[in-house]
């Protein structure tokens, strides 16, 4: 074997009681795409942060091109030629794209803008350099992160779940990029929960379970089922059963929903119509940035319509367009937003306090006072029923791995026993075992008569669980398509706007 | 007419103590640190500067001494609030009280003494204009403060330093993960703020009213803090806010001299009221607040 670009020997890292990494050995060969596989909380992100110098290992040593590597900070890592795209983005919302990039990449603004445009066109990562980050969808933000990283010309590029929010076209273009980068001499460390992706482009894979390496394999020699078993240490959960739908009364209706945001960069919505009945799952497919964020805020109540437009959104048969989020929740609505740190949970608060945010009507507040024991009890049940891996109810939300926090938020909302349940990107960054569990639970809820609306960029996921699919593209919604009688290509046509009248 | 001339001529000098302190606080807050000790730091700076001038040290030495005292007191705040991650509000208040105490202690024997202020420099030509001419006859510190305002505006608008400060203030975690030394940057910003508060105190005590009286800062530090918030953390708005405050307080004096029958307490509170109303209306734009506000303001950061 050729001398490795990067070697780790016996790397360990603890956070309090949690052993995030234990004696990890890893060799990254030059010119290779190396996958790191593992369940939520297996320690993948932690390992990457150690390599990028964000955290320092408790013990063990790292070798970079054969010489010992001690990184005081990420800027030291960047000087060595290590670049990283974070799972939870490290972008600044009030700054523009170009300002975010200038914080990391030296150079004159004008040359940077040209390079952003060039890289964007070359790799299918188009972004407006002058847009503010807070105006961008999660998918667009990730494009910014990736471009920012590519602009530092790294020798080793670390991508922590880069594909989880990219639409399918961009994923294949990103893979082209990564392969081209590899052929140009760059090594890539690649984290993803999508095993087929890993089999498609990775040369090596290292599997982590509970902080320890459980194997080094060539992913092309194993099928996805095998890989999943190595990750979770048992067989994969079965895909959710599909009972035939028995739709009941209408729970959500959009009637000609039209919305013109005052933010000039947001997507206006034009005349959307949908009907969702009890006992049904309706999927909204489409690439984020096509009105997904606006639609989800209009349904959740974060954006209110003026009183005269209130009929455009109906829940449980009542006009609710003018109501705020709390009033809609009182009607039996619950909601999982796409960004879990920020809208789904408060980073610095314990899980028990995060439970209170939406579950307070379930007896967690008595006479206006917080009933801490009940809140802790609720949280314990949520953790147990939804397989959230954490140290306990007092753990801070920001200390949970991405997938585990998502399981917690989905679980919390499910426990509210909603009549109408709305999820945006429910399995973003969730490992295959947990994603299957979440989907199974959604199907079970549907069978019990809950009306479920799912916005997702993952077509496979929508086909897995939905009865009907509508596509949101350019602020317009396609007609409803029966999932069983529709092919992915049909969805794809609507996604690029070919199927909608303009 | 006389009143207008009077207001225009004195407005900038009256605004300068607010402006200097608010600009310093702006830099600290932009980096995410809320230092409520401005009033006390100004008071300490004022006492030090007055003593130096009184003993013949001159104004340059006085400002240097006041600035240094401001830096030291703010570093003490930084040690408690950033180093030990204590609550910033409590730490700021404590430092403020300490500053006022030190000021009273050092100034005790100088009560009611006076010193000589600074000569005014006129802009040739412009200063002879009718009505507005007075605007162009100011002391050197006013001119330097105007230059400083412009410089700080330029730093935030055009330079990487400004960008880094804003980044650290918005999302210290992300700044840390892309490799910026968050704590060091915040300490530097706080120290700069302390220096500016020291200057502000020095100006108030040795140039604007060159007479020592305990408690002479009289709430100006608090107004400076309010200016930063109501000015939505924008240099230009803070500048206009300070000018407005200066102008309204002088207009009150002019009105009194002109025999307007208003209770003096009302006249004295007018500048506060008008400035807060005007800036409150301006700062009520939520989009602007979101864009310019400092997301992590007051939050401790643990790397
Ligand atoms: N800052 C922190 N403080 C405390 N615990 C932490 C911290 N960061 C990570 N952990 C814990 O370390 C373990 C590994 O987390 P890590 O984020 O590396 O998982 P992961 O493999 O990236 O998971 P995912 O696929 O969900 O992103 C988890 O149990 C997590 O709760
Ligand atoms: Mg992770």
Q: How would you describe this structure to a colleague?
A:
The complex is a heterodimer of chains A (502) and B (303). Chain A is an alpha/beta fold. Chain A is built from 16 helices and 23 strands. Chain A has helices at 44-51, 74-80, 97-102, 109-123, 138-150, 168-183, 195-201, 224-232, 292-300, 325-330, 351-359, 372-385, 402-414, 432-447, 459-465, 488-495; strands spanning 6-15, 18-28, 33-38, 59-64, 67-68, 82-85, 156-160, 187-191, 204-209, 212-217, 250-259, 269-277, 281-285, 313-315, 318-319, 333-336, 365-366, 369-370, 420-424, 451-455, 468-473, 476-477, 481-482. In chain A, strands 13, 16, 19, 20, 21, 22 and 23 form a 7-stranded mixed β-sheet that branches. Chain A has a 6-stranded mixed β-sheet with strand order 6-7-8-3-9-10, sandwiched between helices. In chain A, helix 11 (351-359) packs across helix 12 and helix 11 (351-359) packs parallel to helix 13. Chain A is globular. The termini of chain A are far apart. Chain B has one domain (2-118, 138-292): ABC transporter involved in vitamin B12 uptake, BtuC (Orthogonal Bundle), CATH 1.10.3470. Chain B is 71% helix and 2% strand. The longest helix of chain B is centred in the first third of the chain and has 29 residues, at 2-30. Chain B is globular. The chains are: A alpha/beta (502), B mainly alpha (303). Magnesium ion (MG) is lined by residues 44-45, 87, 160, 401-402 of chain A.
Overall helicity of chain A: 25-40%
Q: What CATH architecture label of the largest domain in chain A applies?
A: 3-Layer(aba) Sandwich
Find the CATH superfamily of the largest domain in chain A.
P-loop containing nucleotide triphosphate hydrolases
Number of helices of chain B: 12
Secondary-structure element sequence of chain B?
HHHHEEHHHHHHHH
Radius of gyration of chain B: 19 Å
Determine the oligomeric state from the structure.
Answer: heterodimer
Class of chain B in CATH? Mainly Alpha
Count the beta strands of chain A: 23
User: Please, how many domains of chain A?
Assistant: 3
